[in-house]
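Quick one:
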Amino acid sequence: MTTAPDGPPATAAAEVPELPPLSRDRRVQAWILSGALSEAGDVAWYVGLAWSAAQIASPAGAGLVMGIGALPRALFLLFGGALADRLDARRTMIVANFGRIVVLVAAALVVASRGVSLPLLLTVAVLFGAVDALYNPAAGTLPRRLVRSDDLVSLAAGRQLANRLAVFAGAPLGGLLVAHGGLGTVMIADAISFGAIALALALVVRPRFPRPAPSGHSIRRDLVAGFGYLRRDRVARTLVIAFFGLNLCVGPVLAVGLVQRTHLDGWGSAALGWFQACSGICAAVGAITAMRWKPRRPARTGLLALILQAAGCVMVGSVPRLAVFVAMGMIGFTAGLASAYLSGAFQQTIEPAYLGRTSSIVSLSDEALMPVAMTAFGALISLTTVAATCALFGVVFAALMMWSALRIGSPETVDEPT
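Output:
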């Protein structure tokens, strides 16, 4: 038994019309553009949040504001993944976005009447973390119901490119808004971006393929079934492990290793900004390449490309300043390329009934394990050197990607959804 795209389970598969090419697909374009606008609003909000926290709180308090949102995300992500496999994704995302708008507008009114305070910032951060745990898994199930399986990699590449450009626009926008209008102005701007994606979801971005029928079991049994699915499916399990390795090996190198290298060698904060800009530009080029080059085995191609990214991670800790730009270019290009291939392959590979739960398990590595990886990376630098620590993480990352590529085996395409 299948499910109608926006309704209860149906006894027959919904008839799917002939789909237009992605370049002329208005639903896909609305999904990409509204998502990019929301991403720009989010980046602007986090810039404003970080600046405001630094103005009113101690360094420890500011760090608490920026990190406390990860706690509700980590606590509720698996629950959100189970709900994503039960409920209609589009409606869930619309409700979540309206919830974000209510939080931001209410907080902006408090700022206008009482000013910015640490309890207010902490409250907003916690509420956003909880909503993210509901929204993100639901969003992870939408592409599979929007386009054909063969178009999933191109859709992932388009979203990757749009989001990279949104980050470039959102960061300076946040700085300008908070400098000239204060935190309340940033909140309103972010609320507008959430309103745009909610409207796009309500009016344009409607799924074309039916969602699987809910299991009818309890949330606990659904979660157990999700982990059971990963135990049974070797390719799905390998992709999840590879995503864990990607998040936990590369993140600390860029967030801790690159910063420490720049600081210890006396290159200055401007150099750090140029390194990041180089990576971002090359990531956009990588995403464009993924849109044009469609390998027969996207997952294996993405995993092998990440071995080059691992080499860049090793280089960050030891090569001269000019060569660090080369390393960051390697990391950025392979990130844009591999992210598109692996995201598309993930959508193609995972059974639709388990997409929400599996996406939430992958996201959990960022929320729950990344702080541990960051701490371990910093501790290793204290015990050894930046070069040795970057080399260790890079070698482990390369070995894991090679192991994953070998285990993927045959092409990971699946039949069209029906």
